[in-house]
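hiii so my PI (J.) wants the whole complex modelled not just the main chain, which honestly fair. so below is everything: two entries, each one labled with what it is. i double checked the lines twice but i was tired so who knows lol
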Amino acid sequence: GENVEQHPSTLSVQEGDSAVIKCTYSDSASNYFPWYKQELGKRPQLIIDIRSNVGEKKDQRIAVTLNKTAKHFSLHITETQPEDSAVYFCAAIGGTSYGKLTFGQGTILTVHP
Amino acid sequence: NAGVMQNPRHLVRRRGQEARLRCSPMKGHSHVYWYRQLPEEGLKFMVYLQKENIIDESGMPKERFSAEFPKEGPSILRIQQVVRGDSAAYFCASSPTAFEKLFFGSGTQLSVL
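here's the output for the full assembly
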């Protein structure tokens, strides 16, 4: 089955800096890669996703890049703000359904004012 | 649109009791997924259901756990004879089709005493 590794486990940045979180996946058939943000005690919220036929996608301060050959994808947050502080999860899926996701272990992002 | 509704938000059970977790998907969504999140870990897929059908239960423990999504009413995740290791946050998610984005509910925090 699919295996997703996520790094780093914790990330601390100053407000205004950029943050990068990286994930690798094992199943070359995976074709959909969402990123979720989870604040303490709350639901995971989809912040951006990318399909395997696209190499990069951007939405305001958030971007995701995908390298299918190397089987890794990354989340980039620019001009970080304190409200970006949360746990971020990458995930991957291939084949049967976009709902059967394999999640990474999560990255605790702290943005210091 | 009220979003994915889960209840209860918190559930306390003693060892050996039964736990019933409910999930009403977003309006128009017929695909439901259950995930479990242990403390400080990522979400783990449990089961994928459509109305009256279990599509994929490969993530469900073989014993004590069952799920249903009847023609009328919410999806139910049932855990019989709970043990302390069942303590976790259980999230439900829904999507309109198998290949569209997941929307998560707020979760049920199960505590087993």
